[in-house]
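Retry 2 of 3 after timeout on previous attempt. Resubmitting structure tokens to design endpoint.
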């Protein structure tokens, strides 16, 4: 068999700068490889005979695996209706061993999505998560599908608990949050992305472990600057520009993502943890990159040990939450956290000066609460009135008697109680609170069998 000319791959960079995530130890198999400017690769080679051997051996090893012990798996897809997600959902619905799908997407389909996403004209103006949920149910009627019509940042952490989190997101900030969710819950995380201008499709696999890299391990100061700083007064979520990627590129990334998920589900081990698979479709080049744990990573890589509570947000008051710490450890420095969310206590109008007292999580404020009744401008929260934790010694007696539901906490939300030395995490019980989560409350009141039907998670916005 003729051998093709081979040229060693050269080191690449991330965003045209040096890579700081640590040494790369696995070779990239590529012929005539010149890596794209935004991804690192190591030296390597590939020829036709090598590729044929690797492919046949891999298929034989996969076919020998038994998936019966992995039945009943739960997959969570973030960005389920986008350029990648709309192609990924049908692939996962056909995946053997998968029993449940949770689809998260806040957006609706528009006419411009017809050329970049796997949809039909009849799907226009409909919620993306609902469209893809119906599609998955048509492919596999036995599949339990739960669409969530909200931003990933607003969904209760307990609602996202599963075996694998698949990210089909289009911004660094959203991927960063998905990475945090995966590590907090101890879920495997498979992230996919595309770059339309160079026809690049890539997939990264992460597995929470002490010595494993996370999504942020490849970041430096400029990456954090690119995500933008969200100030306490910024209540609205900034809009992300579209990727403008063709449907074929999204389908390629989705296929890579489904393959990596299949490998995880069949083998039960993360053989590709910390690796990036990149295909440069314009030149038919393939790159494999190994990432290492970055000791300077800002993320703490902690997986939370969460205790499930039977009590609902309506049942527990703030004072009750503090009582979750043993009486002997309840000190003046005891504090209550809300899973990384911020509590807002006052909103001010930048136009007319109107002020409104609130006592609620920033992510759970509804439109009516954020609007000025005089000039209809959006109310903003000054940093002095925003906090990540409640300190027991600073809490007013009337505030201590408030229920957790009044703060905007829902079923599945995670709270943490610290005595100043240790911190414990608790997931709130299976009954939703009132207010902006009425849709979730209706859904949770249904029986477990009803979850097989498509029942969306909705937030009130008026």
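Retry 2 succeeded. Sequence:
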């Amino acid at each position: 068999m003729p051998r093709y000319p081979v040229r060693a791959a050269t080191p690449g960079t991330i965003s045209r700068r040096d890579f700081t995530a640590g040494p790369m130890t696995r070779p990239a198999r590529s012929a005539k490889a010149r890596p794209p400017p935004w991804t690192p690769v190591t030296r390597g080679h590939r020829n036709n005979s090598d590729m044929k051997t690797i492919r046949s051996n891999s298929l034989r090893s996969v076919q020998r695996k038994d998936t019966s012990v992995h039945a009943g798996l739960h997959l969570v897809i973030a960005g389920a209706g986008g350029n990648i997600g709309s192609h990924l959902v049908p692939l996962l619905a056909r995946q053997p061993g998968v029993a449940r799908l949770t689809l998260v997407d806040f957006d609706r389909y528009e006419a411009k999505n017809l050329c970049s996403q796997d949809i039909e004209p009849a799907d226009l103006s409909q919620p993306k998560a609902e469209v893809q949920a119906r599609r998955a149910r048509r492919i596999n009627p036995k599949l339990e599908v739960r669409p969530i019509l909200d931003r990933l940042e607003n969904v209760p952490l307990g609602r996202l608990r599963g075996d694998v989190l698949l990210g089909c997101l289009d911004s660094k900030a959203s991927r960063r949050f998905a990475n945090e969710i995966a590590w907090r819950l101890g879920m495997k995380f498979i992230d996919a992305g595309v770059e339309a201008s160079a026809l690049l499709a890539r997939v990264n696999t992460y597995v929470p472990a002490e010595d494993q890299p996370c999504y942020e391990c490849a970041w430096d100061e400029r990456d954090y600057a690119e995500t933008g700083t969200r100030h306490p007064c910024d209540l609205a979520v900034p809009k992300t520009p579209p990727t403008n990627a063709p449907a074929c590129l999204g389908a390629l990334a989705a296929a890579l993502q489904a393959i990596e998920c299949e490998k995880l589900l069949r083998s039960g081990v993360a053989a590709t943890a910390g690796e990036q698979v990149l295909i440069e479709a314009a030149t038919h080049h393939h790159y494999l990159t190994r990432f290492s744990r970055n000791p300077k990573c800002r993320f703490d890589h902690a997986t939370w040990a969460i205790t499930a509570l039977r009590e609902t947000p309506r049942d527990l008051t703030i004072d009750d939450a503090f009582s979750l710490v043993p009486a002997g450890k309840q000190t003046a420095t005891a504090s209550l956290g809300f899973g990384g969310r911020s509590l807002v206590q006052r909103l001010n109008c930048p136009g007319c000066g109107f002020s409104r007292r609130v006592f609620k999580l920033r992510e759970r404020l509804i439109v009516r609460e954020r609007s000025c009744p005089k000039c209809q401008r959006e109310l903003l929260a000054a940093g002095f009135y925003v906090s990540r934790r409640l300190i027991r010694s600073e809490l007013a007696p009337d505030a201590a008697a408030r229920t957790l539901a009044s703060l905007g906490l829902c079923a599945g939300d995670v709270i943490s109680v610290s005595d100043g030395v240790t911190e414990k995490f608790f997931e709130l019980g299976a009954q939703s609170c009132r207010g902006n989560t009425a849709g979730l409350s209706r859904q949770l009141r249904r029986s477990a069998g009803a979850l097989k039907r498509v029942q969306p998670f909705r937030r009130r916005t008026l």
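Attempt log closed. The chain has two domains: 48-290, 306-437.
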